[in-house]
Amino acid sequence: xxxxxxxxxxxxxxxxxxxxxxxxxxxxxxxxxxxxxxxxxxxxxxxxxxxxxxxxxxxxxxxxxxxxxxxxxxxxxxxxxxxxxxxxxxxxxxxxxxxxxxxxxxxxxxxxxxxxxxxxxxxxxxxxxxxxxxxxxxxxxxxxxxxxxxxxxxxxxxxxxxxxxxxxxxxxxxxxxxxxxxxxxxxxxxxxxxxxxxxxxxxxxxxxxxxxxxxxxxxxxxxxxxxxxxxxxxxxxxxxxxxxxxxxxxxxxxxxxxxxxxxxxxxxxxxxxxxxxxxxxxxxxxxxxxxxxxxxxxxxxx
Length: 302
Fold this sequence. Notes:
Layout: E1 2-10, E2 23-32, H1 36-49, E3 53-54, E4 59-60, H2 68-78, H3 83-96, E5 101-108, H4 109-122, H5 127-148, E6 153-158, H6 172-186, H7 196-203, E7 206-212, H8 218-235, H9 261-275, E8 288-290, E9 293-297
Helix pairs in contact: 2-9, 3-9, 5-6, 8-9
């Protein structure tokens, strides 16, 4: 069975002035459950060895995109390697070994706000359906359609934004939407019969859609760090780096100094990703059809 750990993020109002295009993005990592425990053990060992474990709380310290600048400054101050770069190396190793997949759907924030307003004019009391519609598009196009198909899987979503102003979203409805689409995709049109076992397999392919706490779920943290790098790239329309003999993230004749932690980590992410066999042509501003790395620009505008 597959497991997907995912979340969503968007350009905040305080970030608008610093980016070329603000976005809302949905992202996640997927792996076979047989690979989950070894990966979690590797992450736990990494955190303990690199000082990312709180002895007072007897718990790992959360890794997140919002802490990128602090880690970069700390590493420079004491002249040590950047632990966030080393954490990303775990992802690159899993991706190159084809044990993990990454999916990313992005939509312009202005369009999101516009379409949500139109949607709420029709369903004024239900932001949930609009939100689930987008989550469905993300999960279906990045993971289900090309990789999972009719095989069983679970979805774990960070719960920080899974509710309206006065109530928690009914997460089970997203499971129903996914299963209905899978059933329609894999049921032959005009077919007169379908075995009970096959019918159950299709109806129950999405075994679980549930909520997770990112601070307690290392795989949500891993996807968050990757997604932060990708969002930084698309917000600033950064072209792919020339990984042969060029020292800068920015694809220009003259190398540009990396001035911030986000510059530095994103540069490391993009270069490391394009060094993986089969990924040297990857452009994160475009659709990616790489089997284990899906980039899906999404729009509701005609």
